[in-house]
Design brief:
- The chain is built from 2 helices and 7 strands; from the N terminus they run E-H-E-E-E-E-H-E-E.
- It has 130 residues and is an alpha/beta fold.
- It has a 4-stranded mixed beta sheet with strand order 1-4-3-2, covered by helices on one side. A 3-stranded mixed beta sheet has the order 5-7-6, covered by helices on one side.
- Strand 3 and strand 4 form a beta hairpin.
- The structure holds fe (ii) ion.
């Protein structure tokens, strides 16, 4: 058996709202409740498990490789909802996308400030190297 990334935990103020947001934005099936988590499952069967906390939330970064059509649909949702978005992880290029590796990429935040990235080409696949 090979090694596949399986799950991670994202701390949230409201795990259900957060999981619903991410699933809606990415166009994935509705989150499932399991134990203390609301789980968002990607097409490669990785789970992002939102869990409630009252403690400080340290912002994390999650990137998703998406198809060109999915990128367009997600980016449309970002704009329809008037969400802020950036071309870069440092959030110094607002209201822009990037074309790294001859693809498209953009960053936006989930309700907890976790930085979500969507890209249409894997890092370095087109020769981009920051
Ligand atoms: Fe990234």
């Amino acid at each position: 058996m090979a090694i596949h990334f399986n799950h991670t935990i994202l701390l949230a103020r409201d795990s259900k709202t957060s999981a619903d947001f991410l699933a809606d934005m990415l166009g994935l099936p509705a989150p499932r409740r399991w134990g203390p988590f609301y789980m968002v499952t990607t097409d490669n069967d990785a789970n992002l498990d939102y869990m409630d906390t009252e403690d400080e939330i340290v912002r994390q970064h999650y990137a998703f490789l998406v198809g060109d059509g999915e990128f367009e649909a997600i980016f449309n949702r970002i704009r329809e909802r008037n969400l802020r978005y950036w071309a870069d992880p440092g959030q110094r290029k607002p209201s822009e996308t990037n074309d790294h590796d001859n693809g498209r990429g953009v960053y936006f935040e989930d309700p907890n400030g976790h930085l979500v990235e969507i890209i249409t080409r894997a890092y370095g696949s087109g020769g981009w190297n920051p």
